């Protein structure tokens, strides 16, 4: 709002990608991800570049069940089959829609990755919000404490990296919600060694111009921003107006659909009869750089899913320097659901 070495990489090195060392030093990574995707690229770097450039889709519907014998030394995605099964139980309502854990996991992925911009030498998608750096006590992270505890229990059980789990959980939650896209999902990030920087996340009362500028410093266009805020399709507000705590931001909060775009256009900022409209969403919906794309998403689920997936992949890789070492594990996510 939010990548040739694999052909020669030793199998033992692949195994190490599945479990990140919590305090392994992360190199400073100022500059946009695009600056890391120049020159001779390995297949993973090339894939990421192609997705961000629109050459390939950010959605991958490949699905695989966990093999009877799944060795991390042969496939670093192995533990993620079990993580996926656990998250499915944690994120799904009895009616098949996504629940409060899922919608919080979507927000958690944004807040962990989004605390970064092109001038940052640390931060981004590094798992710091899930780790012991006290970020959960920051006011902008109000409401994420419960899902943080849930995700920490998953991490403790399966010993996967914090940074990877924060983004994996976002992508899993997205597909747990009916109609959501299977966003390409990468593992192999390095975990944080310190708290993310402050002042890098959007404010619900900020102007559209400031929000666009904030996201541009992370590498997102106004078009990308229009797609990313659609994640509010499954959101509920709790702290903007405590008198309306729990009100959804669109009329179908258990479904990953485009009703949010129409609901925002047709209601005033604040509490309405059925939905709560964040001031930031309202001003973006009518801003000259955003409004045309916003209206394009109304009634067009495939368009939004594609644009969201592409933009969120960039979000999920903010501040990640070791792009060549990543592995795609989208195949471990659940299949997409329709109503």
UniProtKB/TrEMBL annotation:
Residues 1-20 form the signal peptide. InterPro entries: Ccp1-like, Haem_peroxidase, Haem_peroxidase_sf, Ligninase. It holds the Pfam family peroxidase. Ca(2+) 2 binds at residues 250, 252, 257. The active site is at residue 111. The keyword Signal applies. The record marks 107 as: Transition state stabilizer. Keywords: Calcium, Disulfide bond, Glycoprotein, Heme, Iron, Metal-binding, Oxidoreductase, Peroxidase, Signal. GO terms for molecular function: heme binding; metal ion binding; peroxidase activity. The keyword Signal applies. Residues 102-233 form the Plant heme peroxidase family profile domain. Belongs to the peroxidase family. Ligninase subfamily. PANTHER family: CATALASE-PEROXIDASE (PTHR31356:SF66), THYLAKOID LUMENAL 29 KDA PROTEIN, CHLOROPLASTIC-RELATED (PTHR31356). This is Peroxidase. It comes from Periconia macrospinosa.
